[in-house]
Amino acid sequence: DVKVTQSSRYLVKRTGEKVFLECVQDMDHENMFWYRQDPGLGLRLIYFSYDVKMKEKGDIPEGYSVSREKKERFSLILESASTNQTSMYLCASSLLGGTYGYTFGSGTRLTVV
Amino acid sequence: AQKITQTQPGMFVQEKEAVTLDCTYDTSDQSYGLFWYKQPSSGEMIFLIYQGSYDEQNATEGRYSLNFQKARKSANLVISASQLGDSAMYFCAMRAPQGGSEKLVFGKGTKLTVNP
Fold first, then answer.
1. What's B31's DSSP letter?
2. Within an 8 Å CB–CB cutoff, is residue A95 touching chain B?
3. Between β-strands B64-69 and B74-79, what pairing exists: parallel, antiparallel or unpaired?
4. DSSP assignment of A8-63, as one string?
5. B72 backbone dihedrals φ, ψ, rounded to 5°
């Protein structure tokens, strides 16, 4: 069964901490994505990557960075966590032009206190 | 820019009845794809159905069908014979080109509650 695995289901961090959210996929997909989900706002794209070491900003990249050193792994980095980054973070991967959409991880619920 | 609009924050339906969840989209691209996802309370995103912009027939997957009206730019999801397990958030999404690749743009979602 194909999978996208996010390293943590729940995470609590302090304001100002550097936070790493890890995502690994085993499907050899080119594309990987980080979304943020908030009630009433749906899913908003933070960053995505279409190849190793390549990254593109999504709709809300401020306060975040990403790293993709290997095809299967895509990391989201909060350089200095703030309370307004408390949210559900969803990682996804896909083949370019696929008709089955994206495969999502189970999500990381991050709370910044 | 591409945009997805879901105008129903919440919907209620009786078990075994059909329900339609609305989705309209905005794009200037000629080639695009439309998706529906289900998100139960557990949080995982489950792919339900896909419609390509050049597909002449409406997509169907079991109890799910997509009512695609290209001229009206609508892609409504129809769930027939609702079940209690259908209670969830439902998201409409569109694949949009971005640089040398592509991304999915999501609507804000509709929360469906199926009553016994």
1. S
2. no
3. antiparallel
4. -SEEEE-TT--EEEEEEESS--SEEEEEEEETTTEEEEEEEESSTT--EE-S--TT
5. -90, -5
Nearest residue to B36 (alpha-carbon basis) of B55, B23, B19: B23
Task: Note the residue count of chain B.
Answer: 116
pLDDT tens per residue, range B32-71: 899 999 999 988 899 999 999 998 899 999 999 999 999 9
Residue A61 contacts B, CB cutoff 8 Å: no
Give me the pLDDT at residue A74, please: 97
| Residue that the structure tokens 């016994």 belong to | B116
Over the stretch B81-102, which tens digit does the pLDDT of each residue have?
Answer: 999 999 999 999 998 877 667 7
Of the candidates A42, A102, A104, the beta carbon closest to that of B109 is on A42
Q: Which residues of A touch B45 (CB under 8 A)?
A: 90, 92, 102, 104
Band of the pLDDT at B6, cuts 50, 70, 90?
A: very high
Structure token pair of residue A77: 């980095």
Contacts of residue A62, Cβ cutoff 8 Å, sequence gap at least 6: none
pLDDT at residue B29 in the model: 86
Q: What is the phi-psi region of residue B73: left when phi exceeds 0, alpha when psi lies from -120 to 50, beta otherwise?
A: left
Smallest Cβ–Cβ distance between A102 and the set B44, B104, B109 belongs to B104
- Look at residue B71 and give its three-state secondary structure: coil
Q: Distance of alpha carbon B102 from its chain centroid, rounded?
A: 19
Name the β-bridge partners of A13.
A112
